[in-house]
Amino acid sequence: MAEQGWRERKKTLTRRALIEAGLRLFRDQGYQETSIAQVAAAAGVAPRTFFGYFAGKEDLVFADTPARIETALRVVDERGPEDTVADVLTRVAEETIAGNPGDVDLLGLASGRMDLVMSTPSLQGAALHRLWTTEQRLAGALLRAFPDDLDEVSAAMVVGSFAGAFMGAAGASLRRGDRPDEVRAAVGRAVRHAARGIRAGVG
Amino acid sequence: MAEQGWRERKKTLTRRALIEAGLRLFRDQGYQETSIAQVAAAAGVAPRTFFGYFAGKEDLVFADTPARIETALRVVDERGPEDTVADVLTRVAEETIAGNPGDVDLLGLASGRMDLVMSTPSLQGAALHRLWTTEQRLAGALLRAFPDDLDEVSAAMVVGSFAGAFMGAAGASLRRGDRPDEVRAAVGRAVRHAARGIRAGVG
DNA sequence: ATGCAAAAATGCAATCCGTGCGATTTTCCG
DNA sequence: CGGAAAATCGCACGGATTGCATTTTTGCAT
Prior knowledge:
2 copies of one chain form a homodimer.
Chain A: H1 6-29, H2 36-43, H3 47-53, H4 57-61, H5 65-77, H6 85-98, H7 113-118, H8 121-145, H9 152-175, H10 180-199
Helix pairs in contact in A: 1-2, 2-3, 5-6, 5-8, 6-10, 8-9, 9-10
The first copy, chain A, binds a DNA duplex (30 and 30 nucleotides) through α1 and α3.
GO molecular function (chains A, B): DNA-binding transcription factor activity; transcription cis-regulatory region binding
DNA-binding region (chains A, B): 35-54
InterPro entries (chains A, B): DNA-bd_HTH_TetR-type_CS (IPR023772), Homeodomain-like_sf (IPR009057), HTH-type_TetR-like_transc_reg (IPR050109), HTH_TetR (IPR001647)
């Protein structure tokens, strides 16, 4: 847990500086309109250095998702004996919502990422791709947690219908201009719908 | 319906040449590894001309989807009086499958696109983004077709769960290396599952 | 404190996508 | 045949990435 020293500390410091500078610039002047050179300059490093921290422009925007994904997977892995597939996925969804609609507070930059992604096509694609690969991992974890109730395809199908309902509702609610709590409610309804659908099919 | 003359004819001809050349090169040497310059050269036009036909490299890969999307939307618009939401979406899915898993035959280049997309991250993102925007349009059409049973959010949620289940099943089946007919079967099962889930919730 | 080796930050060149613009060539039509 | 409109081209940028060689920093053992 303990960091080595100045070396490590400085690295996470630079990383954070890049994220904050990037997110701020993206929000203020737009994603496409902001060049990596600007982000690097604002963070006080050379443009080339940016790529030592992130694989690309998109990566900076989703810098906090890996942790959230691990959390979601852990929820599945820690399935209780009495839990059903729907129970577990519902809990995953709740866990996800807890730090999603209307928030972000990534590094002090509360909100903004949702709007940013929703208003930037290329980021939408990136976000959906991450969601897609995450769904696959989630399906794998689910299959491991319920080996008697599922198979590869049904696991992926269940996760897909869940995520699909979730995203569909969230997207529509946001597009409609709902308040954060309304979005939460909409998503909650979608999750319950998906859970009901699953119970009607798989154990 | 009738084309003007040589002008129009040549245009669609060049367009087709670009698509065929592109798809062939993408399949043979990979998407990322193929430059637009190569595609243009193979089609006998200047690189700059490529952008007169497609907005970008990705567009070429999905050149046939617009038509398919229109078809899907039409299926929703032509809802029968007795149809339920699940009925309509099931029909949309069938319509979609009819020309999807294992095929493509876009322009004689049977198969290959599915594999191409599944093996190219950036194309996956593009494909998912197209799916996402299509879902929105589908939700809109569905809302128009069932104004008494749905609202914006529930329509999007229903479409999302449907598409999610569809994609999840298709992806898992393909990833597992299933034969085209097996993929079809898996998707069929997913569609029935999603339909059941919808019937359990919305009318 | 000093010097060396590993790690990080840079600089630079090169490739490729995508776009604006002006110059050319084709095709259409009177 | 003589434009006018449409389609191609060529050219020059701006910006994302990447590979490679060079220069700074930092960690650590004398």
